[in-house]
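Technical note accompanying the year-one report. For the benefit of new consortium partners, we illustrate the data format agreed upon in the data management plan: each record pairs a sequence with a structure-token string. No post-processing was applied to the example shown here.
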Amino acid sequence: MEERRKNRRMELSAKILVKRLDADNEPKEVNIDVMDVSKTGVGFMCAEKLEIGAVYEVFLTIWTKEVLHCFIQIIRIEMKEENQFSYGAIFIGMTEAEASRIETYDTIEKMDA
């Protein structure tokens, strides 16, 4: 399959909390397992059923233990196992400073390889 990503993805062992923004229901925090992240998006696994096109508030803990506050929009969903989904999402409105933190890690990863 042809690579369609704009930026190289990297793996982080981190968790993020997701809260749906555009729904009338009570916000629900959900732990998810990050598979990979780039300065433009994130791939993760989650047991919670999320919706394509939905926007969620995210608190992403990166390798430095800093927490990046941003928003994501779900663009891909794939069922992996019973009650386990793989998601692809793009960052919406991430500040350049926060995107730079992710890009810095990518640069360090390349130097170590």
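Partners are asked to follow this layout when depositing records. The CA atoms of residues 31 and 69 lie 15 Å apart.
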